[in-house]
Amino acid sequence: MSTAQREWLDAQLRRARANPGQSVSEMRHGFEKMMNTLPVPDGIRVDEAPIGGRPALRVSSDTGASAGTLLYFHGGSHVVGSPRTALGLTANLVIRSGMSSISLDYRLAPEHPFPADVEDVVAAYRELLEMGQAAESIAFVGDSAGGGLAITGALAARDAGLPMPAALVAFSPGVDATRSGPSMVTKADVDPLLDRAELDRMSSLYVADHDRRNPLLSPAVTADLTGLPPLLVQVGTNEMLLDDARRLAVRASDAEVDVVLDITAKVPHVFQSFTGTLDEADEALDRAALFLRQRVRG
User: Fold this and answer.
1) 97, 101, 144, 203: which one is catalytic?
2) Looking at residue 67, what is its pLDDT?
């Protein structure tokens, strides 16, 4: 564990924060520019693979993969981001898990507010099942807003009568649109990436006129998580969404869901993106890959 690595990354992220008042187009461009600086590992193949009526990228290893599929959902507060901005993280998980990934280009707010992206997740999952892929060979994985979609997409799929995937993995998930977690205040100064005012602004674009206590907006607060598959939640202590993850894990355990809450000290939001730069990122992805290999069947 390197203090120097963490301090360097903290400084880099603070410099990369979006400027207040940017337009949605400017925010998207800035996020893409920042995320495209993250390296993609060698030995990866990327193909266009539309699914569920939406564009998507199939990310696989050149050396082949097991029959398992990671249905991946990128981060970006439901407003910015794409499969391309999450490619480094997705590809590193593909290599470690030995599985291929389908990274979904779900619809974004404000053009398509809630619940458009949740509907896209269910449509993509339904098509995978209709193509003959077994539910036990699929895992939902996502980071930040996409980590939230891994949870809410599974809830929506459950309520639609679909079989549950084999596992859920959520990196620093956003799972409370009410923003009522204590860490939203207590971690505001140490979080180098997220800004409360910008979070609230993007959240308003996504939530629109819906009740923020809707279980598909705030599963850590109001959702019945009964019947969800085994869940791994990873989060860092230097992020405002820390208590989103904590409360989600408690709620899942109360619903008799197998859950692993994996908290890493003094690392930022979606720290798993910084493999090769931050030792903790590589170690966390190794743990996530093990969790997936133990639960996803080919």
Assistant:
1) 144
2) 77
Active site residue 74: no
* Cβ contact 95:64 at 8 Å: no
Residue type, 203: S
The predicted pLDDT at position 65 comes to 63
Residues 30, 81 contacting (CB under 8 angstroms): no
> What's the token pair of residue 50?
């539309």
Annotated catalytic residue, options 119, 198, 239, 280 = 239
From the centroid of its chain, how far is CA 198? Answer: 19
Model pLDDT for residues 217-273, shown as the tens digit of each residue: 999 999 999 999 999 999 999 999 999 999 999 999 999 999 999 999 999 999 999
Domain extent listing, the chain: 3-295
CA 57 to chain centre: 16
How far apart CA 197 and CA 285 sit, in angstroms, is: 30
> Bridge partners of 189?
none
Topology given in CATH for the domain delimited by 3-295? Rossmann fold (3.40.50)
Give CA–CA dist 289/282, Å, rounded: 11
List the catalytic residue out of 77, 101, 269, 280: 269
Contacts of 120 (CB under 8 A, 6+ apart): 52, 53, 54, 104, 106, 107
Residue 269 annotated among the catalytic residues of the structure? yes
Verify whether residue 26 is a known catalytic residue: no
| pLDDT over 70 at 1, yes or no | no
pLDDT tens track for 156-181: 999 999 999 999 999 999 999 999 99
